[in-house]
Amino acid sequence: MLKSLPKGPYVCVNCGHQSNYSLVKVYGPDSKKYDHGGNLITDGIKNGDDYVDFKPQKSINPLNLKLNDCSECGKPVDYYLQMDSCFLILDAMLMKTSFFRHIIHNCQLSKSLPIKLFIVYSFCETYKEWSSQCTTQIAYAELESMFYTLFLKNIFFNLIFFLSIFIIFSLRSGNFYQRRLLSSLVISSFCKLYKLPVTLWPSESQEIVDLLLEINLFAGLVQCCSVAFHQQIGKISCSLNLLLGYLIVWTSKKLIDI
Questions:
Q1: CA-CA distance, 135 to 220, in Å (whole number)?
Q2: Which of 77, 135, 151, 218 shows the greatest Cβ crowding within 10 Å of its Cβ?
Q3: Looking at the structure, do residues 46 and 153 belong to the same domain, yes or no?
Q4: Which of 81, 106, 131 is the last residue of a domain?
């Protein structure tokens, strides 16, 4: 489960209001040991391994935890704090705006998580491409070298894509304060994971399935970029900027093939 930011302002996952300065209210003798995001503080320093999970715990000094309501809509600022991770995954698959607001604006994103996901995405794409090129006439050593070559190429092109999108949106918005945008883009590309089961269990209409996967991925990136800039950039503009990123990657592939 992702931990919340230690201090606000937090964004309401329901209405998008940005001026909420606390996610939870903690009542009890040890209430001062928790920050505005519900994270446990040890000796004045936030402990990254501890967080409030809103589940009953046996404690000498029991705490009473309550989600704060948004000052704009009156609903809980971030109800994902008291929900199980499976609901978060389900909302991610449904591409709900509330999920992207929770991930982008209210959560602490570790530096290692986007990197790990980036490598996994590249592996899934590589395996799909590699399996389509494999034939029984190719030697095992050649198959292995082919896989590594495709893997390095996919890492390179994915890196170009995410960096180009980050630069395009930073220039488009006129500022570079969205330092979390790059990590959010990587996390929001979870649709790339679907390529592995689709490859392992192919269907008769594989081309249609691949097209639907790409549309799903594109829709998730549009939603991510729109939420990252608090919908100040319309979804049409986000789509055009993303298409420009795809064009940069396509041009890079053509230049390398030459």
A1: 34
A2: 77
A3: no
A4: 106
